[in-house]
Amino acid sequence: MTYEDRLQAFVGRTITPLTPGQDPVNVPMIRHWVEAMGDENPIYLSDEAAKAAGRPGIVAPASMAQAWTMRGYAATMASGPAHELTELLAEGGYTSVVATDSDFDFARELRPGDHISAEEVVESISPEKSTALGVGRFVSSLRTYRDGDGEVVATQRWRILRFRPKQATAPRPRPAVNLDNQFWFEAAKAHRLLIQRCAACATLRHPPGPCCPHCQSFDWDTVEASGSATLHSYVVAHHPKHPAFEYPLVIAVVDLAEGTRLVTNLVGVDAADVTIGMPLTLDWLDADPDLTLPVFRPAEER
Question: Measured by CB atoms within 10 angstroms of the end CB, which terminus of the chain is less buried, N or C?
Answer without folding.
Answer: C
